[in-house]
Amino acid sequence: MTTMPDKKIDAIAYNHLNLPNAFVLPRNQSLSYTYRADGVKIAKRNMIGSPKASTVVTDYLDGFQYSQKTDNGLIGSREAMDSDFAFEREAFEVDEVIELRTAPPTLEIFPTLEGFY
Predict the structure, then answer these.
(1) How far apart are CA 36 and CA 6, in angstroms?
(2) CA 82, 100, 109: angle at the middle one, nearest 5?
(3) 70 in Cβ contact with 55 (< 8 Å)
(4) Which residues of the chain have pLDDT under 50?
């Protein structure tokens, strides 16, 4: 099978193990997989738009998935950039007069289940 029009896949390429390793999707999207020698999937690369747009790389290691998104040259929203870091805020706030002042210290407690038996 080299195409799947019902799933909107324009082309499928296979490697020497007869596993799909490259998909061509509409609107300049492509999807590629990397496998180990025994056929276990170790990486997925999803390119959205032209090569200068954004790329999502997912690594598979021992049952865990590690995903990394890179925006090559595109300007994203401030909220999208801030959501990459868990519970981190800026240490300084900037006024309109370009005057730096420190942010007020606030105590934030996030309850977890660690230590409860």
Answers:
(1) 30
(2) 45
(3) yes
(4) none
Kindly report, residue by residue over 37-61, the tens digit of the pLDDT.
Answer: 999 999 999 988 765 678 889 999 8
Closest CA to 89 of 110, 66, 105, 109: 105
Report the 3 state secondary structure along the chain: CCCEHHHCECEEEECCCCCEEEEEECCCEEEEEEECCCCCEEEEEEEECCCCCEEEEEEEECCEEEEEEEECCCCCCHHHHHCCCCCCCCCEEECCCCCEEECCCCCCCCCCCCCCC
Confidence at residue 92, expressed as pLDDT on a 0 to 100 scale: 55
